[in-house]
């Protein structure tokens, strides 16, 4: 994994990929699948996300205020779905689904070795956690697998249907 | 345009498409390009989005508390970029870029005829507008073009690069 400048993090999340969210609490790690997230600020990169109290990760996120956002490509799709179908209350998902935790540099939750990008995050605002299950995260360190140049990300369309990232086009946009 | 049940709106926004946002104020309509948005609740569908005070639409959105989210497919890509490159302060973007405003049913801002989906929205929470340029919208009416079955949406990867929606896969997900 190579370090990615924080100024480029929005390029990973803005297209709307399904992501994995890891947490760690009292020595136990957990992973959930998530696609309700968006960029809020370029740099330092702020990311908003929705994590429901029904998710086992909610408690860990609120208590520890740390997580990792790991971005899988299509090769991991079956595991991404299994992670989403199960709860950390019942199983150790890293062990059960053969995912490899890798120590992060600045937060306790682990990176996911099989993902092409990993973002170490701190919760910087949870005032809307009750109202909208809403967390604002700051990405404090970002990693990318330099071997993956055109990742086929997954994009959830509901009820088991996923769009897989297609071709890339370039247009004369002046937007950042 | 056929009406889409509000319970299905998340299936359009969750994959992270670039969207157009229309507003209307003092008889003048405007459009901007946006990709910082996410679902917050299934039904009634709540959508969070970031609209900067630097965008001409910010004032209209805050004052009128209404907008339409219109979702373009790749055929509209050049216009989507032109909309993003210009400001409603200077030009009537509907006229200049040959986009067709269509009256909405429940809000004043127009639908965009050329887009395959249009979501009529009301601002239900702007308490974080100053802090994060953050608006929570409720979708009150949704329209879809029944002729478009597999829309090739655009997904912004920064600096003029866009991913175009690729193939669809089905997996045994129990997630909604």
Short précis:
By secondary structure, chain A is of the alpha+beta class. Chain A is built from five helices and twelve strands.
Give structural notes.
Chain A has helices at residues 10-13, 57-64, 77-85, 93-96, 129-132; strands at residues 2-3, 19-25, 28-34, 37-41, 46-50, 66-71, 101-102, 111-112, 117-125, 134-144, 154-156, 161-170. With 176 residues, chain A is of the alpha+beta class. In chain A, the strands form three sheets. In chain A, strands 1, 2, 3, 4, 5, 6, 9 and 10 form an eight-stranded antiparallel β-sheet that branches. A two-stranded antiparallel sheet of chain A has the order 7-8. The radius of gyration of chain A is 15 Å and the shape is globular. The model of chain A has no long low-confidence stretch (mean pLDDT 97). At the A-B interface, strand 4, strand 5, helix 3 and strand 12 of A face strand 4, strand 5, helix 3 and strand 12 of B.
Number of strands of chain A: 12
Output the helix-strand order of chain A: EHEEEEHEHHEEEHEEE
Largest interface: A-B, 54 and 54 residues
Broad structural category of chain A:
alpha+beta
Number of alpha- plus pi-helical segments of chain A:
5
Uncertain segments of chain A are: none
Main beta sheet strand tally, sense and closure of chain A: 8 strands, antiparallel
Quaternary organization: homodimer
Shape of chain A: globular
* Overall helicity of chain A: 10-25%
Alpha carbon gyration radius of chain A? 15 Å
Chain-averaged pLDDT of chain A: 97
Question: Termini separation of chain A (Å)?
Answer: 25 Å
């Amino acid at each position: 994994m190579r370090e990615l400048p924080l100024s480029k993090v929005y390029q990973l999340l803005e297209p709307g990929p399904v992501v994995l969210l890891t947490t760690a609490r009292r020595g136990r790690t957990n992973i959930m699948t998530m696609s309700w997230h968006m960029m809020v600020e370029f740099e330092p990169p702020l990311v908003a996300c929705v994590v429901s109290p029904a998710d086992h990760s909610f408690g860990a996120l609120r208590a520890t205020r740390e997580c990792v956002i790991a971005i899988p490509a299509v090769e991991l799709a079956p595991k991404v779905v299994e992670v989403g179908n199960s709860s950390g209350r019942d199983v150790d998902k890293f062990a059960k689904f053969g995912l490899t935790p890798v120590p992060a540099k600045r937060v306790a939750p682990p990176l996911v070795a099989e993902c092409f990008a990993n973002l170490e995050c701190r919760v910087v605002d949870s005032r809307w956690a009750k109202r909208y299950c809403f967390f604002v995260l700051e990405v404090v360190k970002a990693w990318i697998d330099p071997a993956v140049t055109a990742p086929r990300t997954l994009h959830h369309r509901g009820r088991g249907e996923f769009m897989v990232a297609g071709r890339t086009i370039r247009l004369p946009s002046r937007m950042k």
